[in-house]
Amino acid sequence: MSTRNQRILLLVTGLVIGAIAVALVWFGNPKNMGFCIACFIRDIAGGIGLHRAEPVQYIRPEIIGMVLGTFLVAAGAKEFKVRGGSSPVLRFVLGFVMMVGALMFLGCPLRMILRLAGGDMNALFGLAGFVGGILVGIFFLNRGFTLKRTYTMPVLEGFALPAGVVALLLFLVAGASFLFFSVEGPGSMHAPVAIALVAGLVVGALAQRSRLCMAGGIRDVLLFKDPTLLLGFLGIFAAALVGNLALGYFNLGFADQPVAHTDGVWNFLGMVVVGFAAVLLGGCPLRQLVLAGEGNSDSVLTVLGMLVGAACCHNFKLASSAEGPTPNGKIAVIIGLVILVLVAVLNSELLKKKVGASSGKGAAQAE
Amino acid sequence: MAEVIDARGRSCPEPVLLTKKAVATKQDSYEVLVDSRTAMQNVTRFATSVGYKVDVTQQDDDYRLVLRAEG
C-alpha cells in the first residue's frame, strides 16, 4: 500500500472510530467514554469478579468485538501470525503499570482524545503528560532500548485469546449468574450488547488494517517526522468533536466533566506513565489489543497485565474517581515511573556505554 | 556487499529505527529483513522518505527489503 493510501485509511479509520464512540454514548455508554480500552478492560475485570468496585463491573462487548474483528480480518489478510517470546513477563508488568497510569487519569489515550473532543480541558494535562512520556520513551529507543525479538509459536497459542473472549460473550449473552454487573455508576451505563459488539468488530477490523496507534501517532512525528499514524488520532478527534457538538454532549471546561477529576498534576503524571509504557511496549493499549488479536502472545500478556493491573487498582484503592486521585494511587504512579525507568535503562545501551567509557576501551565497540 | 539489518521479530518502531541508524552511514544500498507486513510497510515508508528506492521480496514468513539510493 502506498504512503498516500495508508494515510487515507488512517484518517478514515479515525473518523469512523470517533463517530462510533459518540454513537455508543447515544446508545447508552457513559459520556466521553463511548470507547475506552483501559476503562472497558477494567469493567471486565470487575465483571468477572477480579475486583469488587461495584460501579465499574460489566462485560464490555466492545472489547470482545475488537479482539474478534482483529482476529478475523488478520486471518483473512494472512496477517494472523503467532509470535511471542519478546520479554513476556516484562510486557505483563508494563501492561500492569500502564493501567495504573490510565486509571490515575481515568482513561486510555483513546479516551483522552474523546475527552478532549467532549470539551474536557482536564485531558489537556493528560495530553501534555502523554507527549512527555512518549518523549522519555523515545530517549531510550534512541539509546537502543529493546525487549528483544519474538519467535514463531505454535498456532494454538494465538487462538487462546479469541476463544477466551468468545466464552466471555457466551457467558454475557446467557446472563451467567457468576458475573458481576453494576446497578449504578459507569458500569451500569452501556449500549445494547449487539450494537456494542458490532461497534467493537468494526473498530477492531479498521484498527487492524490501518495499524492505528495513539502513541505511535505522536512518537512517529517526533522520531521520524512521519505524520501517517497521527492522522488516525486527528480523525478520531474531529469526528468525535462534530458528533459531540451535534448531539449536545460538548461541555467546555474543567469542572463537572463526566468520569473525570480536576487534579492537573496527577492527570499529567498518569499519562506520563501511559505514554512512556506505550513506547516501551511498541504501542498504546488499543494497539496492544489489536496485536493480541493478530496472534502476538506478548501482547496477550500485556492485555492480561492490564486486566490484573485494573483489578489491583480497585482492590488496592489506586484508581481515581470523580473526587480525584487517591493517596495510594499517587504512590503507585511514582512506583510505576520507577519501574518504567528501571526497565528502560536495563534494556538499553546506556549501561553498556558507561562500562565502555569507564574502562577506557570498548567505547568505540559500543557505538 | 550491502549491509544487512536483521529486524525480524522486533516490535514497532525498532525496525525503522535500526534502518534509520544504518542509513546515517550513507551507503548506496542496504538489505533489511523483517517478519511482519506492518514492519515492511513502515520501513518502506521511511526509506522512501529519505530517498531510497525499495524492492520487497517475500521469503516464507519474512520480507527482504533491498534499499538503493536514488539518483
Give a structural overview:
The complex is a heterodimer of chains A (367) and B (71). Chain A is 67% helix and 1% strand. Chain A has 367 residues and is mostly helical. Chain A has one domain. In chain A, helix 1 runs antiparallel to helix 8 and helix 6 crosses helix 9. Chain A is globular, with a radius of gyration of 20 Å. By secondary structure, chain B is of the alpha+beta class. Chain B is 32% helix and 37% strand. Chain B is built from two helices and four strands; from the N terminus they run E-H-E-H-E-E. A four-stranded mixed sheet of chain B has the order 1-2-4-3, covered by helices on one side. Chain B is globular. Classes of the chains: A mainly alpha (367), B alpha+beta (71). At the A-B interface, strand 2 and helix 9 of A face helix 1 and helix 2 of B.
Could you list some keywords that capture this structure?
heterodimer; A: 367 residues; mainly alpha; two-stranded antiparallel sheet; 2 strands; globular; disordered C terminus; B: 71 residues; alpha+beta; four-stranded mixed sheet; 32% helix; 37% strand
Give the helix level of chain B as a range of percent: 25-40%
Gyration radius of chain B, in Å: 11 Å
Strand content of chain B: 35-45%
Low-confidence runs of chain B: none
Biggest β-sheet description of chain B: 4 strands, mixed
Could you give the distance between the termini of chain A?
A: 35 Å
Rough outline of chain A: globular
Indicate the percent of residues in helices of chain A: 55-70%
